[in-house]
Design goal:
By secondary structure, this protein is mainly α. It is built from 14 helices and no strands.
Length: 258
């Protein structure tokens, strides 16, 4: 919706009706998509005539965002194994996974037979952090979350914290992307993503007793970040028109229950 310049679901439905390809929706349907009540037609199967792919033909890049691995990775209650995490890395292209996934030399992403289940035989080192920070926003968040999930599977809290910090840095960079996050709705989305991230950090790394001075510093830092996030949400609510504020409060409740 942001790519079209529309500010509301109703405006976007009008924009779609004027696009090539007869992209017409029932009134109010896009609002249901935004609330997460239903998925766009054919989107789960990634069919050629799915609504997502049809919109992508007139607004290139929208399908790549809709199908990006980051959304699966943000489902923190869903435990993903190392094989699935490797697949999500490989979905993002060679510029992302090269140097992060243990692959056989060559252009094809084929794992060495002796490393099929052990593709991350390392911790997050400075060279990996630098690579993640050089990625685009969604790729960087996803790469940080994959690294964090692998650290969680290895039960390495410090590696988990470092990896989650990399994804957090990309979340904060989203505020600077005026084209993507300049609208009130997208600013609300960014705030909600930050809230989900902070809740998960709190549950897995901040709430347990600190075992070292480094962990104590990290816990204090993210405790402050959580307080700041709550203030940001109050400020965002004050900016929103009534109908958007109602939706934002609904999603905030879901984040609190995450």
């Amino acid at each position: 919706m942001a790519a079209s310049g529309a500010a509301t679901a109703q405006e976007f439905e009008l924009v779609l009706s004027g696009m090539p390809g007869r992209l017409r929706l029932s009134s109010g349907l896009w609002g249901r998509y935004l609330r997460g009540d239903v998925l766009p037609q054919g989107s789960s199967a990634k069919e050629g005539q799915s609504l997502v792919l049809r919109i992508d033909r007139v607004l290139p890049g929208t399908a790549a965002t809709f199908y990006h691995p980051v959304w699966e990775l943000l489902e923190f209650k869903k435990l993903l194994g190392p094989d699935r995490l490797r697949e999500l890395y490989l979905q993002m292209g060679k510029e992302v996974w090269e140097g992060m996934v243990d692959l056989r030399p060559g252009d094809q992403p084929v794992l060495r037979s002796d490393a099929f289940h052990f593709w991350r035989r390392r911790k997050l080192e400075p060279v990996h952090s630098s690579k993640i920070r050089s990625m685009s926003m969604l790729d960087g968040i996803a790469a940080g979350l994959i690294e964090a999930r692998m650290a969680y599977l290895a039960q390495d809290r410090i590696d988990f914290l470092n990896s989650m910090c990399e994804s957090y840095i990309h979340l904060m960079r989203g505020k600077e992307d005026v084209d993507l996050f300049g609208s009130l709705r997208m600013q609300s989305t960014l705030a909600l993503l930050k809230g989900v991230w902070l809740r998960e950090m709190g549950r897995l790394a901040i709430d347990p007793p600190a075992l070292s001075e480094v962990e104590q510093v990290v816990r204090d830092m993210f405790s402050d970040a959580t307080n700041t996030w709550e203030e940001e949400c109050d400020q965002q609510l004050a900016k929103l028109p009534r109908h958007m504020a109602v939706q934002f409060r609904r999603w905030l409740r879901l984040v609190g229950q995450h």
